[in-house]
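hey can u check if this looks right to u? its 319 residues, i copy pasted from the old doc so theres a chance i mangled smth
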Amino acid sequence: MTHQLPPQCLRLLRRQSGVIASWQATYAGLGRRQIENLVRSGRWRRLQLGVYAAFTGKPPRDALLWAAVLRAGPQAILSHETAAGLYGILEDRSRLIHVTVPHPQHLRPIAGLVIHRSSRILQTRHPGYAPPRTLIEETVFDLAQSAISFDDVVSMLARSCQRHLTTPYLLAMTLEARPKMRWRSEIGFALQDVSNGVHSPLEYRYLRDVERAHGLPAADRQAEGVKRGRRVFRDVRYRRYGVVVELDGRASHPDEQRREDNRRDNAAAADGLFTLRYGWADVTEHACETAFEVGAVISRRGWSGTLRRCGPSCRLPLP
């Protein structure tokens, strides 16, 4: 029975979702033989080698995470996809649990665990969360290091800031401590854009490949407006020329969303704004044509600038 356990052991079990490691037992006032008796009697069960649950039945997710990090050793922390899932910046659907241990700690492969090693584990550990995990900024860059595309990196940078888990400044400070970071210079520029209101990879692509690359004037990002007494935010607004660009990166566009888009466009029109709406292909595959269209619209509304070609293969019409 749990009330027969030493008080320090009970406190540890409460903190660790009912899980304890054998290497903690002595300090918690529990002998090895006592653990064996508890397991043999069916009141406790083993979750990992040397890690036990003070309950029976199917262990919850928190207990499994504690079992993994305790199995990996006293300084181990949850990291990568597992930490990202806990922070809510990534949907962690994998059954594998990612754990980081100090370098050069050697561990044999452990079923269900992905082991990473770091020489900066003390600096990357979050000081408050349980079970222990990497800081949100370190988690973002751990994932960026193995990301399939830079669009995925931008998505993580933007999402972590949108959800107020971190800030572009803190991410930039962490980037300074990672001189060998993949896409390092690109991330630095992207963080400046996230700080200025870029919320998605599509918005980043529009800013980089449509607006800047073709010499369009700088727009406001996530510009605030009012619709039916409620605040709304326009993805891109050329305030001086009364033109709004809405960007939609979804593959599908159901009827309900289309009606909402129409309502937003009509509300913008009521405010004297002209709305252009673009999807992923318009920005990534037809950036030059999109820039030409935006340029034509704002030119009719007073822009006196000139579009420039983005490179030798630019598809802007020749003057």
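Residues 255-270 form the longest helix (16 residues).
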